[in-house]
Amino acid sequence: MTPRITSSLAAITLAALLAGCSQPAPETQVQHTQFLAFGTLTELTLADVDEQRAAEAVQALEQDFRIMEGAWHAWKPGPVTRANWLLGEQRRFAAPPSVVPLVKVSQELAAKSDNLFNPAIGGLIQLWGFQSDDSTVSRAPPDPAAIAKLVAANPRMSDITVDGFMLSSRNPAVQMDFGAIGKGYGIDLAIDHLRQLGIDNAIVNSGGDLRAIGDKGGQPWRIAIRGADGNGVLGVVDVKGDDSVFTSGNYERVFEWQGKRYHHILDPRTGYPAQGTRSVTVIHHSATVADAAATALFVAGPKDWPRIAAQLGVDQVLLVDDDNVAHMTPAMAKRVTLSDPGMVTRITELPTLP
Ligand code: AMP
Ligand code: MG
Questions:
Q1: Cα separation, 189 vs 194, whole angstroms
Q2: Which of 146, 169, 192 represents a domain boundary (last residue)?
Q3: Cβ count within 10 A of residue 264
Q4: pLDDT tens, position by position, 281-320
Q5: Within this chain, do residues 165 and 292 fall inside the same structural domain, yes or no?
Q6: Cα gap 1→42, rounded to integer Å
Q7: Is residue 149 domain-shared with residue 252, that is, in the same domain?
């Protein structure tokens, strides 16, 4: 995990690649550094920062990410696995301080998403074998009876009571997995830290999900949105100021069994991988909200996403359905340039909530 300062590497993520390739003003220095975090390549892009300050920032953020990864890991022994064991035992216990803020923000976003974003379904995620570094290995899907049993137990974040630092759950089936929000929350903390270090022009990009602040010598950052198959570029957006761009797709953590593909985003209502959607991209000021919302809207699917988006307060959404139709909010349509101009698009206004 030694940081490297470089301007081009084969494994560089698409978003940063584009950010690095657009033309900065001649005096603008742009630096890229990569390290592994959250099981993926994380890249820090800094503009207009002298080398010493950049090196300090890289060191600080690499350490932050290492701590966050350990604090929120879903299956490596640590604070979350310990808390899950105690929740399963129906104990009331002093929660690790690193976990409490994620529990609270997850409770709020789970409620707003009608529990389609549901980090309490760790039991299901584990049953499907997605809590593993090898989740793409071919294997039989779980026994339908075991899936049905966990769905019937209906674990929800609202089953957890946070009382100061004490946690308890009224439902023994609750097992926390922050895989759909931890990266976003971590990127928000990383951006806060950069600002404290006096850095105002930066991108923190973890595996193509990112938050960009400021600009690049007065020019916007140009951000690529990952293609619905996980390769290529679905479109580009310019970011100037402060925005997060997060994509959830059915191309990650996929395994095949007897000719069928099974991906990692589970519909908590059925216990099976969510159907009908290929990818969802959300742009929002907060990376935490963008991350959770992309997962929730993926589960909501091509019909229900507008209502859930309105409830979550996100107004920039791009959902590619199984028929390759690009559904967009008007606010997203205004700023995204799709790579394929012939792609069928459908603009949908978000409903007004009662
Ligand atoms: P993301 O890539 O942000 O959509 O997160 C996907 C990860 O979140 C999966 O690998 C699981 O660990 C977890 N997950 C899967 N389905 C859900 C869900 N419906 N709600 C919350 N977390 C989920
Ligand atoms: Mg997510």
A1: 9
A2: 169
A3: 24
A4: 999 999 999 999 999 999 999 999 999 999 999 999 999 9
A5: no
A6: 11
A7: no
Q: Is 72 in the pocket of ligand 1 (CB under 6 A)?
A: no
Clarify whether residues 163 and 187 are in a common domain.
Answer: no
The residue segments making up the domain with residue 162 are 74-169
CA-nearest residue for atom 5, ligand 1, is 180
Look up the pTM and report it: 0.93
Regarding beta strands 202-206 and 160-163, do their DSSP bridges make them parallel or antiparallel, or are they unpaired?
A: unpaired
What is the amino acid identity at position 267? D
Q: What is the pLDDT of residues 242-264, one digit of tens each?
A: 999 999 999 888 999 999 999 99
Phi, psi of 172 (to 5 degrees): -65, -10
* Distance in Å, CA 133 to ligand 1 centroid: 15
Do 16 and 35 contact (CB within 8 A), yes or no? Answer: no
